[in-house]
Amino acid sequence: MPVLDRVSRRSAAPARNGDGDRPAVGAPVLQATEVSIRFGGLQALSDVTLRVEEFEIVGLIGPNGAGKTTIFNCITGFYRPQQGQVHFKGEDVSDLAPHERSALGMGRTFQNVGLVKTETVIDNMLTAQHAAVEYGAVAGTLGSPLTFGAERRLRRQGEAILELLGLAHLRDDPVAGLPYGTLKRVEIATALATDPDLLLLDEPGSGMGPEEADRLGDELLALRREFDLTVVMIEHHVPLVVRVCDYVYVLNFGQLLTEGLPAEVQRHPEVVAAYLGEEAPEAEEAAERAEAERGVEAG
Amino acid sequence: MARTLERPAGGAPVPPHPAVVRLPERGFRPTAAGWAARAAAVVVPLIVGVWYVEANAQVRSDALATAAVIAIGALSLNVLVGYTGQISLGHQAFIGIGAFTSAYIISESHQPFLVGVLVALLVGAVQAVVLGLIALRVRGLYFALVTLAWGKVAEQCLFRLKSLTRGGAGAQAPRPSGFTTDRAYLLVCLVGLALILLVDWRLVATKAGRAMQALRESPQVAANYGVDVKGYTLYAFAVSGAYAGVAGALFASRRLTVQSGDFDFAGIALTYLIVTVVGGLRRRGGIVAFSLLYVLGGEYLPDLARAIGVHTIEVNAGYYIQAFSAVLAIFTLIFQPDGLGTITAPIGRWLRGERFQLAHGGGALGRGGGGDARP
After folding, report:
1. For labelling alongside B337, which of A94, B93, B171, B279 has CA 20 to 30 A away?
2. For residue B371, which residues of chain A lie inside 8 Å, CB to CB?
3. What does each C-alpha distance from B186 to B108, B191, B193 come to in angstroms?
4. Chain B positions in Cβ-Cβ contact with residue A78 (cut-off 8 Å)
């Protein structure tokens, strides 16, 4: 099988990034509707609605504890929201288990690196292709002759992805012991090995300097092209978000603060206040007033 | 879903990460002499083994058959404890159910030996899956206690049901015709062990084994890779139970009669667990090697004790071997988690045509560094 119908799928992707509005191209790849989840007394998410169109790179930003990873967990099925639905490629996946969503084409990385650390890089790549394996578990265990060829193909596929990401030299290295930045990249490779249509990246740029983050941006754009990906990424690195994202959602205290094109969102006063930790103008004024009042009292 | 990845001819290639330095391929090929040495390393122990069986009394072959049975039982535990990260402290139930099933099929239903083994395999798998269903709900220490209880229930109640096991009289488990001598029966046990090793090799080399290893390390990562965590946990129990069923069937016919007293915690569950640990979790070769050492130790310790004149060891050799192995297990867990596999794994790689080196990339128990995903 050749590389999937890459060209035809790509031609459907509209020119975007700075064209002002956001055209809907058929059904969105991902649609989370009014997702709410509560942990005991903490309302972690309330009525969060996200829409991700095909081939978009969508940024998800917000301060710590805003619920970014929580919405990822709701999308991928690790958490079951008390309210709301998740539609993936037009299907309601709200009741599916994480492995079923993964098999449908949701690839995901974790904030603190989700790899099988006792295994080698290539073994992780093989495990990640679990859903694509052609033979059954019992046939594999009983040594069906078919499995040998299938295993070779899996290995080649894994190696090809590593090669593409410039990680081929790490093939036989155990995951444990690789530096953090490398682990982040290996994790992206394993996520690609699950053959995703939608890639959810949880802080891919964490622990990277500005230059590395810049390079990551180039890579993400190239990967989208190469693998026909739709990407949602949680990222703190604002320049990276502005550069690669087609659209940005901002979460704060479990609620959608705003959404829009990166450049607009970046200027949004409440985003500046919430995300950069500065106080919003009104808040500042209120504080000044309070200060003044206190001054009066003291005087 | 499977798509083959090729770089498109016209597509802009992704620039490799600057930190990447391409290393030369590891293209080590042994010389002709090297291959000869490897062949000799396989053939010579085989000849020694055959000579040992031929030169010694039948009873020595029976000991070797015991070693094969213990190896299969320990490999069964290895699937749970080693690959999947589940615990079983009730393996006397696993082995015993296989033994009594096979005995019943052969002597009560008058079926051939092979049918007895196959039914024992199936029944073993089913009982293990039932236990596995509990494992999905109860975890860690609590599940260990459940397995302990399961072993005791089997030992004290199930195996004393007269209608199934003939109670104290013991269930008859005749050997297959033509293989009734100890030497011939050793061959049967070795064939059984070889088949289990073959299955275990393919298990680990294919998707089920990888799924088990992934879910042991992190159920979240496994699920994210598309692995049905519950399904493969049950699958691991089924495989472990199937191995144990075979071990039980071979166990029964080795002894010719089996009764409930043969399947106690210390004699089976604990011993097999110790063999698994000292042999090395996830180290097939180590487990087989230590099964052999364990049995040979029991065989020769009395002679050794007589030679040096320690009477108490001479009469209680079995207990001393057990106690010594237990201590060995503790040391293994603390100092050498790969157990005997530390030695057997490099030998195995060397036999397959690699350089002989003790350390290897895929260490069994990596520590730290890999991160741990929490959803």
Report:
1. B93
2. 110, 112-115, 117, 180, 183
3. 24, 9, 10
4. 220, 223, 375
CB-CB neighbors (< 8 A) of B7 in chain A: 160, 164, 226
Q: Considering CB atoms only, which of B202, B214, B222 is closest to A142?
A: B202
Count Cβ–Cβ pairs < 8 Å, chain A vs chain B. 228
Which residue in this structure is represented by tokens 């520590």?
B367
Reported in sequence order, the residue ranges of chain B that DSSP labels E, i.e. its strands, are: 171-172, 257-258
The region of weakest confidence among A261-275, B79-93, B246-260, B337-351 is A261-275
Task: State whether B220 and A137 contact (CB < 8 Å).
Answer: no
pLDDT digits (tens, 9 = 90+) for B154-194: 998 899 888 787 877 788 888 998 898 888 999 999 999 99
Where do we find the tokens 């002499």? Answer: B33
For residue A154, the distance in angstroms to the closest alpha carbon of chain B comes to 9
Predicted TM-score (pTM) of this structure:
0.85
Chain B's closest residue to A118, CA to CA, is: B366
> How many beta carbons lie within 10 A of that of residue A10, not counting itself?
12
Domain A6-17+25-267 architecture: 3-Layer(aba) Sandwich (3.40)
Q: What does the domain layout of chain A look like in residue ranges? A: 6-17+25-267
Q: Where are the domains of chain B?
A: 46-351
| Domain range B46-351, its CATH number among 2.60.120, 1.10.10, 1.10.3470, 2.30.30 | 1.10.3470
